[in-house]
Amino acid sequence: MVTDGLDALREEIAGCRICRDTPLRGDAYRLPHEPRPVAVISTTARVLIAGQAPGLRVHESGVPFNDPSGDRLRDWLDVDRETFYDRDRFAIVPMGFCFPGYDAKGSDLPPRRECAPQWRERVLAAMPQIELVLAIGQYAQAWHLGGQRRENTTETVRAWQSILFANRPPAVLPLPHPSWRNSGWIKRNPWFERELLPTLRQRINMLVN
Ligand code: SF4
């Protein structure tokens, strides 16, 4: 098997049990199932997909974005599954690596608070070749944009041009979550498909082909 020097880090993450064994906020917040971290770390990909956290379907399959959200994201990027899952082209590192479970209303909980402080700096440091970060949703935007983040996700995504063209490597492009729950948001914000998506597709085409 080909190794790239990151296998030790991948193994360390694969064995992580922090949210199950020593949850940050005590027993009441223990991860309700066995951890299954899902992330694609790459020393060659030039694009990093910084998502939120795996859903149940991804937790069960161990394959990131293996769900309708992934289908929509691939459509936004204009890439097929084979390209999307090519580790030489895309790194996929969510803000929480494990499925966090559901809240009382049956919605996915936010990414686990333990995860980014524990792993993110190390993972990003191991991928200095990344040229474009797709910051999907509020949690990834909070981490990757810091003070450039606007008052909410809509306004942050609306400011995509000034954020994308800010002079710093890697470039960051904020995106809404591709969940079908955001279909109404996409309809209400037609500039997203009309103006942002063509630029996104052009960048992706440049960086993965
Ligand atoms: S979510 Fe992150 S910190 Fe928590 S158990 Fe999974 S890998 Fe570890």
What can be said about the biggest beta sheet? Answer: 4 strands, parallel
Write out the CATH superfamily name. Answer: Uracil-DNA glycosylase-like domain
The total beta strand count reads 4
Q: What is the third-level CATH name, the topology?
A: Uracil-DNA Glycosylase, subunit E
Between the first and last Cα atoms, what is the distance in angstroms? Answer: 24 Å
What does this structure look like?
By secondary structure, the protein is an alpha/beta fold. The chain has a single domain (2-208), classed as 3-Layer(aba) Sandwich (Uracil-DNA Glycosylase, subunit E), CATH 3.40.470.10. The protein has 11 helices and 4 strands. The protein has helices spanning 7-14, 18-21, 56-61, 68-77, 81-84, 115-125, 137-145, 153-158, 160-164, 183-188, 191-208; strands at 47-50, 90-92, 132-136, 171-175. The chain has a 4-stranded parallel sheet with strand order 2-1-3-4. The longest helix has 18 residues, at 191-208. It is globular. The model has no long low-confidence stretch (mean pLDDT 95). Bound molecules: iron/sulfur cluster (SF4). Iron/sulfur cluster binds at residues 13, 16-19, 35, 37, 96-98, 112, 114-115, 118. Residues 13, 16-19, 35, 37, 96-98, 112, 114-115, 118 line the site of iron/sulfur cluster.
